[in-house]
What does this fold into?
Amino acid sequence: MAKNAFLGKVYLIGAGPGDPGLMTLKGRDLIAKADCLVYDALAAPVMLTWAKSECEKIYVGKRSGNHALPQSDINALLVECASRHACVVRLKGGDPYVFGRGGEEAQALQTAGVAFEVVPGVTSAIAGPACAGIPVTHRDYCTQFTVFTGHEGANKEESTLDISGIATAQGTKVMLMGMSRLRETLEALMQAGQGSDVPAAAVQWAATGRQKMVSATVATLADAVETAGISSPAVVVIGDVVKLAPQLDWRSKLPLCGKRVVVTRTREQASELSGMLETLGADVIELPTIRVAPPSDKRDFAEAVVDAPHYDWLIFSSPNGVRRFFQAFFAVYEDIREIGGARIAAVGPGTAAELKKFGLMVDVMPQKAVAEELIAEFDRKGEEFGGVANVTMLWVHGEQARRVIYDELMKRQAIVDECLAYSTVPETEDVSGAQTRLREEGADVITFTSSSTVRHFMSMKLPLPEGCRIASIGPVTTATLAEFGLKPDVEAEAHTIPSLVEAIRKLK
It folds into this structure.
């Protein structure tokens, strides 16, 4: 293929050690612009949600003994993708050039005449130990460190590792990708002069809620790893700095450390709840049961948005409704002031917060995000606004919403029109393998943030893990759980995401 046949450029981006917050700003910006995203097994699933909906996503995950595609096929795939897309992102765990075979991919692109750029990432060689409380350098212990791989190419006739040099090197030693041959590697190091009683540790799934660490000595680490059930992906650290872990291991002190929590919100909305839980140390499984789709009648929706400035009141039932409404609004109008003089009502603080992003403050909002409470708030403040009789109102909501707001306002002689802004439909994709994780690993808590999440989760026929506790965002969701014979162990006091997180944190 001639060089001028290529449409675009390939970006080799390091996804970091596991925590999506450790992705570089440049890397995240490029994912958002990507026309094609080629990703591996160690890229955090949430990173896929940063891409455009129309972005082509291709999984080429590689784990020891289980490759979705051989490396030569990945190289060829990147070249082929560049012939079809302007911006191709190759997302690799850690840093592309630290035992990530990014150099080989770059060579293949250069040979084919494809433009490419490398965006470095935070390598697990440093971040993995750091998240377990182990600094790879410390003035009281060492001033240098060595990084080596325990997994070399299968086509090599003999190892090129300088075992003797590594064994006798001063300072900290960090081994990546060596869990399948850990015992053999440690024995070879000891035979070459590595002290057997030097502290050593293995950190699995570093920088994530799944992080697990075991510490021992060089002589006993292999046994300790087997006992603890630690496997790939893991980082092995050898050196006196391992002694600092009990003092500096900040992650294990987080309140939800060791707790696995399932988030059933839409993929787009999950990040808020997931982020709060992960900040508290939880291992979050994002298992979206629903997704937000366009309304059945797009024409009616568009006409309602166009007519919105003519109403006395705009009533929003959910953050989703707010987002969809204003996405359509700004396709027609250029200025938020064109919304007119309508008063604004919102069902709860979450919806009000979404409105505030557009510079709109609410006139009526109940503290509890329940339709009945909004009606009660209208009753309480009715005189302040001259009542609702003969007042025109546009109610913006999803197609599956309960009819409480419409029915009750009509009873009070308001003139209510509906704006069906979206539809909630079952999520059919499981790009991150969350369903398998739930079946195989179980969970400590499962969260439900709406009636739709409950109903669609139950329709998946996934078993609730034994001992798994249920967290509900509010009474309407709790009532839906009751329809299936389920009772939540905790219900958010304020019916908001922060309140739900606080309720989970307090679970004993």
Notes: The chain has four domains: 7-122, 126-253, 260-289+427-505, 294-426.
